[in-house]
Design brief:
8 helices; globular; disordered N terminus
């Protein structure tokens, strides 16, 4: 009998609840705060928090996707206003820092929000090229087309942040760093 020692029953050690369980049972305010670190649309965060509990991560991510697709123009503007364009680590060469800063400035001047791009699954060595190429290509977009692309990138970022949140953080109010450093 696995839980007996010298004839006495020893209860198993209590299991720590997983990140999804903690998220599902967090106070509404704590869950909303954690969700706002994933996507700064209050409507998005309230909607996902209101539909708890989620049986598994896939269900949570599906709900996040659905909520993302339903963002109004004002909700999207609210979320994009909180985003910061990806930046380089301080140790990056000055030429790369200057090129990225100029590209971000041009993009933000044209579209009035930070450049957002999901870099999950992209090798660290390729991230700068991916960002610079993305900005260069997307600068040619019409504002409505770019808003649609930015919304999709924001949805992908929110998914990644949410998966990270429930996978690795002990409390729902402890969010991951929401902004990427290359």
């Amino acid at each position: 009998m696995p839980h007996q020692v010298r004839g006495t029953s020893v209860p198993p050690a209590p299991q720590r609840p997983g990140g999804l369980d903690r998220f599902n049972h967090a106070a509404p305010g704590a869950a909303e705060t954690a969700l706002l670190a994933c996507c700064a649309s209050r409507r998005w965060a309230l909607r996902i928090a209101a539909h708890r509990p989620y049986p598994d991560l896939d269900s949570l991510l599906a709900a996040a996707d659905e909520a993302s697709y339903d963002l109004s123009a004002a909700d999207l503007a609210e979320a994009l206003a909180d985003e910061v364009s990806p930046c380089l680590h301080d140790s990056a060469p000055q030429a790369a820092q200057t090129a990225l800063a100029a590209a971000h400035a041009a993009y933000e001047s044209s579209f009035r929000h930070a450049f957002v791009i999901c870099l999950d699954g992209v090798e660290a060595a390729e991230q700068l090229d991916r960002v610079l190429t993305g900005i260069r290509v997307r600068m040619n977009n019409e504002p409505d087309e770019e808003r649609s692309i930015a919304a999709d990138e924001l949805r992908r970022l929110a998914r990644a942040r949410l998966a990270h949140l429930v996978a690795s953080h002990p409390e729902p109010g402890t969010a991951s760093t929401a902004h990427r450093v290359l």
